[in-house]
Design goal:
Protein name: Methionine/alanine import family NSS transporter small subunit
Radius of gyration: 17 Å
Shape: rod-shaped
Transmembrane segments: 6-28
Pfam family, one: MaAIMP_sms
Strand content: under 5%
Keywords: Membrane, Transmembrane, Transmembrane helix
């Protein structure tokens, strides 16, 4: 495996975790808004 393959893997992991974190943050903010309306 060359350095570029390792870099691609690291970038892929960051993108996956970044998307996961964004979806979790979005779900938390939506649940907070729902609680305020009740």
């Amino acid at each position: 495996m060359g350095g570029s393959a390792i870099a691609m893997m690291i970038i892929g992991v960051i993108i996956i975790w970044g998307g996961f974190g964004a979806s979790v943050a979005l779900a938390i903010s939506k649940s907070k808004e729902a609680k305020r309306k009740v």
